[in-house]
């Protein structure tokens, strides 16, 4: 628990039952933890040494830029993360007008593999469009739509809700080209009212509200790294 207090004080916190690891109280001093994989808390507050790997997800609100600073003074995700347990950077892109799940980490290997299309990590979006999204529209997207980068072909498309004035569509991508979903749907004549990323690989937005963030739990971290072909010795997770 480096950075929390002195060793003697930490031993006292343990003796008082105020320290938990992965939801269980620590009952003896000298208990070993993996700071990169274990969830360590004192009085319910997450403890993450700055030398350890930090992974978290943020529900990015609409209107915020996915960057840590903007020379024009526009709002960025950095303004939300002032109380985070260490320095992290956003992975991949999420348009200013879009919202939803954004991964942030200080693990460069993980960031590279999550963002690079060759690793094929699926990204799931829920999109509200104006008008009726028919099965014929879904089939056209599945067949692929030509954009300037090439053929944009979602991994999966399905209508979650169809109505005469509005429909909700789930689209799963692996490429992640700039404004890809907006440009694909524009080719079909649809106007988008909202676009929310709800999933990234094994990660799910769940009940996280706009502007809220949370650290990944150990199983989420392991599964995410396994999905993109990383093992513990490749991530630096043993260096904490």
Keywords:
240 residues, alpha+beta, Alpha-Beta Plaits, nine-stranded mixed sheet, four-stranded antiparallel sheet, 15 strands, 20% helix, elongated
Could you describe the 3D structure shown?
The structure is a single chain. The chain is an alpha+beta fold and 240 residues long. It folds into three domains: 7-46, no CATH class; 55-118 and 206-239, Pseudouridine synthase I, catalytic domain, N-terminal subdomain (Alpha-Beta Plaits), CATH 3.30.70.580; 122-200, Alpha-Beta Plaits (2-Layer Sandwich), CATH 3.30.70.1560. Helix content is 20%, strand content 28%. It has six helices and 15 strands. It has helices at residues 7-15, 108-115, 135-143, 180-187, 218-227, 232-235, and strands at residues 19-21, 24-25, 40-42, 45-46, 55-60, 89-90, 99-105, 123-130, 145-147, 150-152, 156-161, 166-173, 192-200, 203-204, 213-215. The strands form three sheets. Strands 5, 6, 7, 8, 11, 12, 13, 14 and 15 form a nine-stranded mixed β-sheet that branches. A four-stranded antiparallel β-sheet has the order 2-1-3-4, with no helix packed on it. A hairpin with a 2-residue loop joins strand 1 (19-21) and strand 2 (24-25). The longest helix has 10 residues, at 218-227. The radius of gyration is 21 Å and the shape is elongated.
**Cα Rg:** 21 Å
- The appropriate CATH architecture of the largest domain is 2-Layer Sandwich
The unreliable regions are 1-6, 233-240
State the CATH class of the largest domain: Alpha Beta
Please tell me what the overall shape is: elongated
Helical stretch count? 6
Please provide the count of β strands: 15
Q: Report the biggest beta sheet as strand number plus sense, adding barrel if it closes.
A: 9 strands, mixed
